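User: Could you write out the 3D structure of this protein bound to cytidine-5'-monophosphate? I've included everything you need below.
Assistant: Certainly. Input first, then the structure.
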Amino acid sequence: MNILLGVTGGIAAYKSLLLTRLFVKAGYQVQVVMTAGAKEFIQPLSFQALSGNPVRDSLFDQNQEAGMGHIELARWADQIVIAPATAETIAKLRMGRAEDLLGTLCLVTDKPIMVVPAMNLLMWSNDATQENVSQLKQRGFDVLEPEEGEQACGDIGSGRMPEPQAIFDYVQQKIAQKAELEHLFLKGQSFWKDKRVLITAGPTFEDIDPVRFIGNRSSGKMGFALAEAAQKLGAIVTLISGPVQILPPPHIERVVDVRSADQMFSAVQKHYADSDYFISAAAVADFKIEHKLDKKLKKQAQETSFSLSLVQNVDIVAWVAQQKNRPFVIGFAAETDHVLDYAKEKLARKKLDAIIANEVGEGAKGFESDVNQVTLMTLNTVQTFAEASKKSLGFQLLSAIQELRSECVGSN
Ligand code: C5P
């Protein structure tokens, strides 16, 4: 396993000497790339002595490039770790700048990049930095958040780089997770190839009038992650999405945009019979407005309260589960309390094959978050997953569904 350690210009750079030592002791090959700023804090020779490899610091050094060119160096790395990552480096990564060796390597690589920010607390909490970090996370960078504590400048707050052992443990954990996902991927490829998977995702909006609606906080991220995982595993995916703020994953066979539960139901009716699996991840509104208005509803003078008449929507997943020749049906149960009890009740009442329970609401992951913590249940089995990114859970859940199916087929 080859680690490319990027060191940028912050006082925490000294901690990366110990980090290098931990990697080397654990048997990793380490090559260090320093920015000009990093060399103001630490001598390259120290990293060279600890890593056993010459330090790379320039994009245009003919001698260095003669050994291993920057493209080769990017290919050589299995994992890139940037520690410490300054606010400047994070901003450059966000922009995709290629003006120095580290920036260029990060653009040339398709390997995972981990960023370990370290900076003054005000720099860290600045909107610009936070926005840059959030962009990087969305692009798939791993960000190990800084710790609270006393800073080199004397301030006390968030911005300190975690200790080398904590960074090392985090890297190990990420490498193990990636290996596990690769294993699931290899295991799932032949099973999911050409399986037709229908997925609903996101909220539904029930219009009251042309400007108002009743909606919910579902982001669509979990359903999209399942769609992405299924597509990558070779399945033919139809994704029916309520109104969301995120783009559907690329290369999905068919994406159908809907707004209301009725529209989602029509789309599902059109596609369920051609599907082997139906995963109902959408947070479908249980009720719609009885009489939708064509014109904007006006507030009446003296009005202190207001009532809306609602009528029930079709329970889409329960409807599919009742059909003859139906696909294997997996529902979701997003609950704020008694999560597993309610999920089990829904599984039985809606006659689903399996249900994925997750906690939502104040303080919980579930809605809007990039991570989730779920439990997959059938009438006889309960499988709890550790908290993980929704993207990773997409693969883990499909693998678990694969196991359920293999068991069913085996026992028939
Ligand atoms: O009953 P509840 O809404 O909590 O059930 C959640 C599950 O039922 C989810 O899988 C959701 O997609 C599905 N559902 C549905 N149609 C509805 C309401 C919920 O398909 N009208």
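Residues 2-174 form a domain with the Rossmann fold fold (CATH 3.40.50.1950).
User: Perfect, thank you.
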